[in-house]
Amino acid sequence: MCKNPLVPVNGKVIEIISESKDVKTFRVKPETEINQLPGQCAMISLFGIGEAIFSISSPPNRELLDFSIKRTGKLTDILHQIEEGQQVGIRGPYGNYFPAEDMKGKNLLFIGGGIGLAPLRSLIEYALDNKDDYENIQLIYGARTPEDLIFRKDIFEKWPRMDNFTVNLAVDVESPSWDGYVGFVPQYLEELAPTPENTVAITCGPPIMIKFVLNTLEKLGFRDEQVVTTLEYKMKCGIGKCGRCNIDEKYVCKDGPVFYLKELKQMKNDFC
Amino acid sequence: MTQTIKFDSLSSLFNALKEVEKDYQIFCPTKQDGTEVFLPLVEIKEDNLKATYEILSKNEPPLFSIKSFLFPNSEIYLKFKREKDSYEFSVHSQEETPTVVLGGKPCDVESFGMIDMVFLQEPVDTFYQQKRENTILITSVCNQKGPNCLCDEFGVDKCKPKVSDILLVLGEQTTQKDEAVYLEAVSERGENFLEKLDKSTESEGESNTPNLEGEIHQKDVEKLSPEKIKDIMENLYDSPIWAEFAMRCLGCGICTYYCPTCHCYDINDFHRKDKGVRYRSWDSCMFSNFSNMAGGHNPRPSKEDRIKNRFFHKLNYFVKQQGPLACVGCGRCAKNCPAGISIGTVLKKIGVGKHV
Amino acid sequence: MMQQNFEPKIIAFCCNWCSYAGADLAGTGRLKYSENIRIVRVPCSSRVEVQMILRAFQNGADGVMVAGCHPGDCHYDTGNYHTRRRMVLLKSLVSFMGMDPERLLVKWISGNEAARFQETVDSFNDQLKKLGPSNKVRDQRCEI
Amino acid sequence: MRDINKEIIEIAQELLESNKVDMVLGYTKGERPDQTFPFIAKTKEEAERLTFDYYSYNSLSKYLLDDMYQGKKIAIFLKGCDFRGLKLMIGEDRVKREDLHLIGLDCPGVKRGESVSPYCLSCRLNNVPKEEVDTKISTSLEPLVERKYSHEESFSEINDIEKMSNEERFEYWKRQLSRCKRCYSCRNGCPVCTCRVCLFDRENPGYIDGATDQLAQHQFYHVIRAFHVADRCVGCGECSRVCPENIPLHLLSQKLIRELEKFYGTYTTGVDELPTPLSTAKANDPDHFGKEVK
């Protein structure tokens, strides 16, 4: 009998990196390869507690899979208490992926908020792996406070030093430890006004931020097929059968999580 | 090859079934504490037979649909054990004994056609597939429509459903008007089962099922066109009718749990000390925590959103995804909903089919 | 009939001000009582909701004990009066549904009644041993 | 005798036309003669569909808690039990009396399908007191059952169960409860189950578990559901009526009502003053746990 898609494979947490006070990155080594593409997700399970779907924040072809997880619920609470070496269940990859092929030869504009940088990171790193295929990369990233910014090594050290890579950071509220931009991401985006020419914008963040970012991008002249976003819904099966993550007839787990703005606009239901 | 077997009466059919009971798990409908239930054949006593006969002869589906035999209300699929830091998990093996479900109505068995589309499409849900292949469906046909039935409208043939292994016809439903019971094989699986049954019984053996009597033909009923309804629904997204329904909806899960085509599920873990299981159980899109996320965001926060989503799924999304309307017209929602919201009332409200 | 080798699991909800102190005193006084008991400290016996008791049974308890201050001595004046009303009712409902009400013990134990605590636990333990494992209210899923 | 429906429609139309209310919450006929369902009339035309008959079993007062009804002026038709449920909600500040226009009905007893609701057989508070509502329907239907109220007889069903042995009772409830599909209609239909967030809906701690193959989970749900409305029950019997599996849930409530009565005296929800028996406690209550058990 062939394997049921709901049955996970074993994985081991090799390393845990604390990103902020409520975000940790778990570096997992699965027993069998997952072979994901940038933007895809996987189900992580702690036996006895449950499963939840998370986006993979590392690019393809790495030994370890990174999951950057914010502490919000029952499972993530426990996940934040585990130690390196913990065994977890993993199944996936699920969903579609960022259209990295279509983006070749273009500028990439990443707009992220809070934990929303996690799925974007897989594509950023993928683009850096294939530097020749892509033009300039710009990242506009914001969080509530400076302490809430995640992937600090990447955003403060690694990425700003790369060629053709601009990093613009923002925080929502003023803080003594912050001398950068203070304000919301959509606002910052409007001020920076990146050109839509030969550019694809990729955004992820809290639903309300995505909503305003999409508006701003339109104002800046981005067309619907130049904007890509990745969404998050409650999921149980990850394979389009359990029926809860639908927006219209599309299942976020199977037909998403990555959607072009064009697709979102055709939907009758609001995505948030 | 065995095609049709005639039994003198329901009890002679049951005696024949008892002969093969060691190879099959057989379930039949009957009444217990005044309520229709499916029980294993062994538990059906002589005095239950009258109730069983009544349920079979009724032109109305039994209280609860038979989908739970193929897609159980809750099923454990993973077991795990913890030893210090490591976990061991294994797939919880399912019973291999073939199951026979007697007494589903044509609408019930046709619903499996729809669940197949979802669960058997890639990636295949092997738990369902295994049960599906291991279950023989003996369908009790109807020769008339019941008070809530919309089978004709939804294209379900109440006399000869497409998805079934064996058809069960009661003599009283036919021109013969007798007490006999006919079993007619309509699939290979059904034929094999009848052959086994044939050897074990001294019934009259092969014969032909006499013709059914009653309103067997669709009378002036126009079959609903999935495409047409899908298009009508397209324009109803912002309609006030959903709020109207929501105002009287109780928000319970009756419609989803009693619906033979609803197939949403939930996955959860249960553990005690070092042992645990992972199980899936039915879930209902009418519950507020169905789509509520850990962070507190809920894409469908109000009853209106949920009721709209449910009927859009049945009458619009499913058509787009798979083709047919996700309803077999069994009428259980109409019978059981305490607030009188059913597929029939929705169709009426959206102006489809004057007959409903 | 006493079951051989059966050690019941007892969950005891003890009020912080009286019964828990009583248990504490039993400990410091080296009074030995059955180790089958697992004490959960609660601020007041009225904090113990029905769902907690049932959950304990579901998850494998063979007996549940709710212990609070003697009526009139509640740290919050009326807390244990509420416990009293609630527990009487729960016991009748549970027995109406055919479960064993004897598996739920409610007891008033004050902070200086170490001996009473010891006695209560031990006699409850013996009683549960006679009753045998509780399987009417237990979730059976881990036993497969 | 006047036609009750005519009177209902006239009253509703008058209220809507004079803008005294935004909507009238009542009943209308369903598809079949034995179906009557809740209905909201917002216009004079819609009001013509209002009706009241033996099948008007739903408790309408529960709807008022829903978000969709907030901030609106609502006229609501009330049977005796619904009225008592509503009074509890008003007493607990869950709804505002000034937003409501209460229309009292004399209830003839109700049925779902063919069976008369068990509670109606022993109901003595079927009529809504005229002085407590804004409008009283003067016509009434022929009573469905001949009521001979006897306090003892109203508990006859639970007596039968109490006569059983412990094992028999356990088997009885095991059989009944294992039919439960956990659709929550008994909770959602109950007019006195009024928590803002139900403990069964809370995800953390997840008190209830989706597994319906475990008797323990059914017991957990039903004991707690019954217990949480024990002292609040108005005896409408809606829990048993809405249950598609015919689980006699009202027996649990009846048992609890009788126990409360035995220990703490009679209390009739919606008639007697708040607090309800379980939200208060007295020093001189009987103490069943004081005596030593040997």
Secondary-structure element series of chain D: HEEHEEHEEEEHHHHHH
**Percent in helix of chain C:** 25-40%
User: Tally of extended strands of chain C?
Assistant: 4
Q: How is the main sheet of chain C built?
A: 4 strands, parallel
Number of domains of chain D: 2
**What's the Cα radius of gyration of chain D?**
20 Å
Shape descriptor of chain D reads globular
User: What order do the SSEs of chain C take from the amino end to the carboxyl end, as H and E?
Assistant: EHEHEHEH
Biggest sheet overview of chain D? 6 strands, mixed
* Count of helical stretches of chain D: 9
Count of spatially separate domains of chain C: 1
Determine the mean pLDDT of chain D: 88
- Taking all Cα atoms into account, the compactness measure Rg of chain C is 15 Å
- Choose one word for the global shape of chain C: globular
Query: Roughly how many Å apart are the termini of chain C?
Result: 27 Å
> If helices are DSSP runs of H or I spanning 4 or more residues, what is the number of helices of chain C?
4
Most extensive chain-chain interface: A-B, 47 and 48 residues
SS-derived structural category of chain D = alpha/beta
SSE blueprint and pairings:
The complex is a heterotetramer of chains A (272), B (356), C (144) and D (294).
Chain B: E1 4-7, H1 10-19, E2 25-32, E3 35-40, H2 49-57, H3 67-70, E4 74-83, E5 86-91, E6 99-104, H4 106-119, H5 126-133, E7 135-140, E8 166-170, E9 181-185, H6 188-200, E10 205-206, H7 226-234, H8 241-248, H9 254-258, E11 265-272, E12 275-282, H10 303-322, H11 332-336, H12 343-349
Parallel strand pairs in B: 2-6, 6-7, 7-8
Antiparallel strand pairs in B: 1-9, 1-10, 2-3, 4-5, 4-12, 8-9, 11-12
Helix pairs in contact in B: 7-10, 8-10
Chain C: E1 10-15, H1 19-28, E2 37-42, H2 50-58, E3 63-68, H3 79-96, E4 104-108, H4 114-131
Parallel strand pairs in C: 1-2, 1-3, 3-4
Helix pairs in contact in C: 1-4
Chain D: H1 4-17, E1 23-29, E2 36-41, H2 44-47, E3 50-51, E4 74-78, H3 80-91, E5 100-104, E6 111-112, E7 115-116, E8 135-136, H4 156-163, H5 166-177, H6 185-189, H7 215-228, H8 238-242, H9 250-264
Parallel strand pairs in D: 1-4, 4-5, 5-8
Antiparallel strand pairs in D: 1-2, 1-3, 6-7
Please characterize this protein's 3D structure.
The complex is a heterotetramer of chains A (272), B (356), C (144) and D (294). Chain A has 2 domains: 9-94, Elongation Factor Tu (Ef-tu), domain 3 (Beta Barrel); 107-230, Rossmann fold. Chain A contains 6 helices and 15 strands. Chain A has helices at 74-79, 117-129, 152-158, 185-192, 207-219, 261-266; strands spanning 9-20, 23-30, 41-46, 50-55, 65-70, 87-94, 107-113, 137-143, 165-171, 181-182, 199-204, 227-230, 246-247, 250-251, 258-260. Chain A has a 7-stranded mixed β-sheet, with helices on both faces. A 6-stranded antiparallel β-sheet of chain A has the order 4-3-6-1-2-5. A two-stranded antiparallel ribbon of chain A has the order 13-14. The longest helix of chain A is centred in the middle third of the chain and has 13 residues, at 117-129. The mean pLDDT of chain A is 89. Helix content of chain B is 31%, strand content 21%. By secondary structure, chain B is α+β, with helices and mostly antiparallel strands. Chain B has helices at 10-19, 49-57, 67-70, 106-119, 126-133, 188-200, 226-234, 241-248, 254-258, 303-322, 332-336, 343-349, and strands at 4-7, 25-32, 35-40, 74-83, 86-91, 99-104, 135-140, 166-170, 181-185, 205-206, 265-272, 275-282. Chain B has 2 domains: 4-206, no CATH class; 226-349, no CATH class. The model of chain B has no long low-confidence stretch (mean pLDDT 87). Chain C has helices spanning 19-28, 50-58, 79-96, 114-131; strands at 10-15, 37-42, 63-68, 104-108. The mean pLDDT of chain C is 91. A 4-stranded parallel β-sheet of chain C has the order 2-1-3-4, sandwiched between helices. Chain C has one domain (10-133): Rossmann fold (3-Layer(aba) Sandwich), CATH 3.40.50. Chain C has 144 residues and is α/β, with parallel strands linked by helices. In chain C, helix 1 (19-28) packs across helix 4. Chain C has 4 helices and 4 strands; from the N terminus they run βαβαβαβα. Chain D contains 9 helices and 8 strands. In chain D, strands 1, 2, 3, 4, 5 and 8 form a 6-stranded mixed β-sheet that branches. A two-stranded antiparallel sheet of chain D has the order 6-7. Chain D is globular. The chains are: A alpha/beta (272), B alpha+beta (356), C alpha/beta (144), D alpha/beta (294). Chains in contact: A-B, B-C, B-D, C-D.
